[in-house]
Amino acid sequence: MDVYVERLYSALTEALRRSRPRPFDAPVSVAAIYEELIPYRVVRTPLGFAMNADYEHALARLLAGAGDLVRLEPESAAAELREELSSPNPDVSLVRRFGACEVWVAAPADGPGQ
User: 0.90 cut: is pTM over it?
Assistant: First the structure.
């Protein structure tokens, strides 16, 4: 798994901990992730993204299931992202088509889950 996916996941888990009393007990929408919890404008500098496309590529990989850090429902959305990511020139903006899909975020192994 690449460092940008790991950084994005870490930022997401921290944002969930700050915004929810039981951060990993319920899903969050894809749109809430990129609009509210970890928008590009907020994480660009701290996570080291040079361009929005880099952020969207990392987010697409995370949502597609890299490292089993999150589970995107329905599974068909994750499968579509995986297929797109395997293409020679993936359209990473595809993530925005799945804004209403639910994302179950796994609790980090290195800290408290609640």
Answer: yes
